[in-house]
Amino acid sequence: MSTDQQKSANRRIKQWLETERRIVTYREVAREVGCHINEAKNLLLSYPSEGYRTYLLTGLLLSHSTLAQTQLPLERNGLDEKSLAALSSTQMVRIVDMDQVSEDERNSEDGDMAMEGLGEEAPVLEKEEEGLEGLDAEKVTRFGVVLVGEEGLEEKKGLFEQGQVSIHVYSLSPAPVKDPAQYLVPNVALRQLPSYHAPEKYGTITGDAFAPNVPVPATKPKEMKDGAMDFSGGKKAEKEKKEEGKVKEVAVKKETKSVEQPKKAEVKKVEPPKKEPAKATSKAKKRVIHSDDEDEDDGEGESQSKAGNLPAESSSSKKAAAIKEPTSSMVREADRAAMEAMMGMDMDMDADLDLDMVDEAEESADKSGSRGTKGSKETKSKDVEDKVKKEPQEGAGTSRKRRKVKKSKTEMDDKGYMITRDYYTDESYSGESESEADVSKTKTAKRPSVTKTASRQSSVSNDEPAERRKSGSGTPFGGGAAGSGVGAGKAKPAAKPNAPAARGQSTLAGFFKKK
Amino acid sequence: MASPLPAEPGPAPRRPNPSYSSLPELSKPFVIDPANRSYRHQYSNVYFVRLVELRPIVEKRAEERWKAVRGKPPLLPRILNLQRSQLCYIVGTVYLDMPLKPNVLEDMARDHWIVPPAPRPEFFSAQDAVHLEDESGRVRLVGDVIKRERDREGGGLVTGLIMAVLGMETSSGDFEVVDLCFAGLPELYKAPGDVNGTGHGKVKGKGKGKGKAEGMDVDEAPLSGQDKTWVALVSGLSVGAQEAPADLKTQLLVEWLTGESGGPSRTRGSRLQDQLEGARVARLILAGNSLTMPVRGTDDKQPKRFNTSNKTLYPSHPTKTLSLVLSDILSSALPINLIPGPSDPAGATLPQQPLPSVMFGGPKVKGLECMTNPAWLEVGERRSEHVSEHHLSQALVHGKGETLNRDSFFGTGGQTIDDVYKYLPSNARLSMARRTLEWRHIAPTAPDTLWMYPFPDADPFILRQRPDVYFIGNQPEFETALVGDADAPTRIILLPSFAKTGQVALLCLETLECKTVEFEVPTWVGEANGHGVGGMKEEGDVKME
């Protein structure tokens, strides 16, 4: 280390000590100055100061030296003998002497006569050579690490074997340290440094136990305000990637719209597994809530594009997607959800926002093409129905009406929890006149459809709120647009800057409707 | 006084990287599939399975032991078949009738207007009666032998263990015991492919143990301090204990493990002794109580909105703090095994299930393995030559110097021994731990007084194989001993609470040698009067922002 560096380091230490009046540990110096951990210790040692030094002693302990212990609050309860004695002295409680041998035990001695014949045989039994006496604890080498203020240094040195102790300065502080937490405070700040872990620089231990990725400082979970960890760590990056993926998806969909044939493939796609819509919605929902992981999205997008272009392949690609589904990302997702519930952290609020906007963009892109057949298709796959809740969503001109239906589905997930999910799906129902329904049927038959997840469908109609309200006003569920957020079931009017704000709550009555 | 350290900005010290396995075939019984978890089963199944599994072993051993006894005492298959005055032996499950043992029926009948008495630290009393039972019936065991066995230091009987007794029925219908016999120490664990008879002679053909570069080049020479590979065992970090000294100790531990603290030892030249010692630690095992239980009344208080109190602002979220500690340790490439203990949020019944790894940053955190409460694992290499040097074994037969060995570890968070302790008059926990090995059952008192998951058709706590290292967390003090044959020993380690004692056990993989590292932080102003700490601190003049 050059003298220049040393000088600047000293200047910084001086500033910390004298201006900021705070404790300076060697770890902090090493990180702030960017030098080897031992150089930092030397810097502190050579720093000319009147301040209070804390030393760390390390070395072999004498076999008889004892170190101070910390009392933990939990160990203080328990029944101590004194209190029992006091209890008995009050004569309120009679304490039975459990060391007395019970009556029957004494009486049972008469069984002895039978054993007499055996007396000479007993020695035949080889005695258990081991275990007759207690097991003695081994003496072990003891190595000590003792933190001590400058006033106790000499005394603590006595704990160690002569010449087997090494001493270095742990910290400097402007005044004697009275609260142990003070030594901890610098670490909270230190962890926020990007170069907190850099074994090469500081000469700390490293290794190749998990060689391919020793936690790199950059990917290290970043801190929250309280010095704790932010588990949403790389999520933002994921989200961004995901948005890209979605844009791609949108593009793909535009393509499919222009091609007329994908309808057949679509039929296949929607029909088969009963669970499909539920799964899809649940996935979509998760996406809204947690900002799902990127590859899953890609898989979906891919399978869709394939379905669009190569109908023959659609089933296989679909299978692939289905196989893909319970991947680690799902598990991770579940874990994360559990964790969030546990820690009561709400860090995904902002994630919702962006995603909604993406969804909308996407939907507006494919809405004209895709809406028609959905209703009739989806009715096939409904299995559990709870509440019918939404107004018709069809645009003007058709009277084959569709309404949004909230269903809930209970299933056992792979962790054994019963999970009830609410999801929204569209359902067609005939309007007042049959003929109109027929018209709509013929109409739907023409339309190619890309069945997207229900949450997206819900926002399909966002762009024509006026019409919707008109047509919906006649139904028993009128005004039901009421703040049913996208799939998530949360009302968040503020989250949507444009049209949905109006949609959030159209009437006062809607606000109080059951959701 | 401190002297300047020789700064050696050379390459950072590197840890050895021994192979590791979580021994799935042994750990699997402890994992309860959450999808078919059911608490509807009766506990009788557990006892039944235990008796069925251990009875043949005990019978065999008893037969060997008593075959020389004159009169060839027969084995009675059923306790009900006992004949008066006929010398014989029987095998069954021990049941201790203990007046002090908590009784759920008494609890039910209790008048709830009165505050129940505080739970006792022990159930033991001189009025306890020992019974032996099997499927057919139960008989009371009497006699000096049984009394001596129960009372002596290092002995003891607990409910639920399987034992054979030799003796005869008395006129009063009791069974006068002449001698007794347990299942005995099981065989040392051997990896499935291990064909060698001796426990530790194993040629390892696999290309594991990449970190052996320094250690393994030296062939016949005894290991020097620099070549040993150590595993650190810590219990009771008690993160979140609201005790700053405990947190500070943890911090010192982290600094030691990452090789930051310490310096050269003067007598050993200029090498950075401490830092290199830390660098030889290849794995860290946290055996229970990494988190602390919340203290009712203080931890659930609403935090003050403005920092009006004089307490320092240190994050008080135990899980986050622990995950920071773990990530610090992991950053120095030290893998961690995390075993839950009684105060960890992993359920109250044994086997405790692994803490969700997402608590500590999720699956992307490499090197942290959350395990069940009794847990098996296997680490690293042990050189047979060294074993032979110690124990005259014939391990050198395998030659080549590359005869690596792996040490199997088996440990619990401490509940098992804590519960056995309640039954016995002595304080000798080390012998209790050995007893559990001899009984071939690590938790005989479950499900009687130790909570346990009602396994419908298994008793996972039966010990079929003996580990090289048997560690028990959260014990009052550090103790260690070797048990078993000289050439196939098991190292028992009792780990104390780190937050309290500051002790860390280090175990040498090569030699099964054990040592401790102890951490001490100064006593603080106001701490001298014990409980007054909190009060003093609040009025104290320490102000931090």
From TrEMBL, chain A:
Residues 292-301, 347-363 have a biased composition (Acidic residues). Keywords: DNA replication, Nucleus. This is DNA polymerase delta subunit 3. Residues 450-462 have a biased composition (Polar residues). It comes from Saitozyma podzolica. Residues 220-278, 364-393 have a biased composition (Basic and acidic residues). Residues 312-325, 489-502 have a biased composition (Low complexity). InterPro entries: POLD3, POLD3_sf. It comes from the Eukaryota. It is found in: Nucleus. GO terms for cellular component: delta DNA polymerase complex. The lineage of its organism: Eukaryota, Fungi, Dikarya, Basidiomycota, Agaricomycotina. Residues 213-515 are annotated as: Disordered. One of its GO terms (molecular function) is DNA-directed DNA polymerase activity. GO terms for biological process: DNA strand elongation involved in DNA replication; DNA synthesis involved in UV-damage excision repair; nucleotide-excision repair, DNA gap filling. Residues 475-488 have a biased composition (Gly residues).
TrEMBL record, chain B:
One of its GO terms (cellular component) is delta DNA polymerase complex. InterPro entries: DNA_pol_a/d/e_bsu (IPR007185), DNA_pol_D_N (IPR040663), DNA_pol_delta/II_ssu (IPR024826). Its EC number is 2.7.7.7. Gene3D superfamilies: 2.40.50.430, 3.60.21.50. It is found in: Nucleus. GO terms for molecular function: DNA binding; DNA-directed DNA polymerase activity. Residues 231-479 form the DNA polymerase alpha/delta/epsilon subunit B domain. It holds the Pfam family DNA_pol_E_B. The keyword Nucleotidyltransferase applies. It catalyses: DNA(n) + a 2'-deoxyribonucleoside 5'-triphosphate = DNA(n+1) + diphosphate. Keywords: DNA replication, DNA-directed DNA polymerase, Nucleotidyltransferase, Nucleus, Transferase. Residues 1-21, 198-221, 293-313 are annotated as: Disordered. Its main location: nucleus. Residues 1-16 have a biased composition (Pro residues). It is an enzyme of class 2 (transferase). This is DNA-directed DNA polymerase. The lineage of its organism: Eukaryota, Fungi, Dikarya, Basidiomycota, Agaricomycotina.
